[in-house]
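Quick review question:
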């Protein structure tokens, strides 16, 4: 019996760089396959070949024994191949029903008018199938990321998809939304659908997948039943070496003088009476659940969002609310959570993105002309320092890089400004385990050189592994503070949930009620 999906010696190159090398793989029907690999390993390229976005240089694909060579995403859809992308393809200004029927509304018999009753009925039935209880007329822009994810699944099911590819589906979801999504995916498997699940969160892969495929440098490094691939083996195959510790070792040290001081900062309905300091050489982690005010606090500190009261000081300088340029000139940097929308200009080259913040320093005295030689030299230093994988910093558009290399480019943009304070909001979201280690090594090196770091993460293990001190937020307030020698997950989580905790007599650590 033929496998449901077969890749046979698939090859694909871009400008001399081999993205896929002789990829051969068989996937049975009605299973969940976890596809893992570092950024740049070839996962996206292989899926783009499957989805008709790219044509392979050589090799063949078969679905249920029949040759499959899609020339466009529309061809893939006709074959029953659907994609649920990390960046969802929804029109947020339209309603749920309008998004579901965007490629063709049913009309009244014999009349050129939309059959709105049928649209409403079929939308309600479709939403019910994924346990999403919202009105068909709800605008997508009002929905949570988890609800939008389910709308994408409904779209795929309406097109009678047989193979559904989930690309980093849990990146922006809460734990409850993730749990619900996993239930839906298991239901799809039970209904006979074949699932390819791509994720950098290896615990999710381990929980959900039946089989594992590991890619590295465009080649299959291993594949088989999930029981043969514990997380340590996945990591080893992904990066080509053992990573004994997922985070660089952080040696004990005494922090220096206060660089950033936040005093009684408030913004009604957002944050209240925030007191916070970051010292030279210190990495301070900020933990909290979604909606806790973590990101909003970072944006207020950097001047992107308003503050009603309070004071923010950088070294000996009191910063004016909303003055972003003042902060940059004073030595503050901010790596935002949304790297594509706020951190990069996707159509520009890697080099152009790297000098966005510091462009003024590359201008001559005559007519504002730039110094291209100096720009190229300084950009190349950052590319080498951060190991950004690119065919050419001056010519390669940043949109063609993997997610991890895009994130390194955002960080590199700020490193060129030599910041005293670096604010990082979810710096490793959507980044593979190898690139994650490199990002943390970069941040640690910056701290060792005397900078202060304020790092926001929804992954508690990440903060425990990297931060010298963790502060916890809940509903816009600071509810706990924990020094490195007294990290206890239960206490930190209790502070995030605003639960009463018992103070430890040995450590003195604890959270607020």
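Suggested answer, residue by residue:
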């Amino acid at each position: 019996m033929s496998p449901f999906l077969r890749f046979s010696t698939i090859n694909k190159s871009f400008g001399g760089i081999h993205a896929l090398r002789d990829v051969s793989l068989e996937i049975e029907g009605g299973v969940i396959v976890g596809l893992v690999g570092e950024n740049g390993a070839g996962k996206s390229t292989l899926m783009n070949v499957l989805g008709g976005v790219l044509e392979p240089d050589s090799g063949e694909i078969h679905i249920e024994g029949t040759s499959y060579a899609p020339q466009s995403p529309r061809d893939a859809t006709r074959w029953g191949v659907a994609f649920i992308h990390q960046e969802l393809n929804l029109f947020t200004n339209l309603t749920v029903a309008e998004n579901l029927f965007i490629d063709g509304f049913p009309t009244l018999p014999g009349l050129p008018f939309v059959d709105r009753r049928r649209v409403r009925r079929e939308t309600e039935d479709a939403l019910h199938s994924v346990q999403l209880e919202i009105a068909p007329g709800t605008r997508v822009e009002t929905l949570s990321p988890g609800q939008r994810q389910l709308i994408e699944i409904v779209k795929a099911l309406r097109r009678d998809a047989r193979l559904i590819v989930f690309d980093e589906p849990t990146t922006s979801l809460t734990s409850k939304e993730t749990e619900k999504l996993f239930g839906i995916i298991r239901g799809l498997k039970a209904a006979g659908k074949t699932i390819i699940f791509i994720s950098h969160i290896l615990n999710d892969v381990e929980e959900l997948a039946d089989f594992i495929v590991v890619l590295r440098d465009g080649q299959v490094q291993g594949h088989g039943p999930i029981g043969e691939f514990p997380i340590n083996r996945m990591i080893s195959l992904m990066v080509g070496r053992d990573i004994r510790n997922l985070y660089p070792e952080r040696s004990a040290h005494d922090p220096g003088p206060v660089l950033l001081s936040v005093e009684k900062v408030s913004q009604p309905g957002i944050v209240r009476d925030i007191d916070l300091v970051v010292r030279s050489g210190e990495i301070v982690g900020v933990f909290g659940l979604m909606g806790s005010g973590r990101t909003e606090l970072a944006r207020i500190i950097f001047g992107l969002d308003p503050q009603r009261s309070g004071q923010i000081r950088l070294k000996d300088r009191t910063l004016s609310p909303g003055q972003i340029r003042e902060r940059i000139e004073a030595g503050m940097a901010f790596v935002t959570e949304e790297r594509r929308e706020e951190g990069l200009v996707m159509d520009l080259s890697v080099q152009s993105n790297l000098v966005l913040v510091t462009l003024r320093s590359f201008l001559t005295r005559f007519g504002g002309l730039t110094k291209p030689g100096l720009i190229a030299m300084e950009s190349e230093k950052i590319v080498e320092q951060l190991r950004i994988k690119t065919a050419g910093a001056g010519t390669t558009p940043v949109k063609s890089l993997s997610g991890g290399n895009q994130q390194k480019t955002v960080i590199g943009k700020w490193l060129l400004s030599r910041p005293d304070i670096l604010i990082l909001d979810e710096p490793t979201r959507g980044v593979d385990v190898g690139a994650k280690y490199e990002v943390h090594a970069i941040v640690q090196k910056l701290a060792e050189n005397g900078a202060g770091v304020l790092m926001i993460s929804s992954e508690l293990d990440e903060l425990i592994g990297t931060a010298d001190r963790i502060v916890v937020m809940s509903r816009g307030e600071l509810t706990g503070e924990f020094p490195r020698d007294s990290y206890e997950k239960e206490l930190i989580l209790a502070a995030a949930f605003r639960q009463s905790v018992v103070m430890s007599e040995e450590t003195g650590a604890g959270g607020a009620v």
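Why it works: The mean pLDDT is 86. The CA atoms of residues 20 and 187 lie 32 Å apart.
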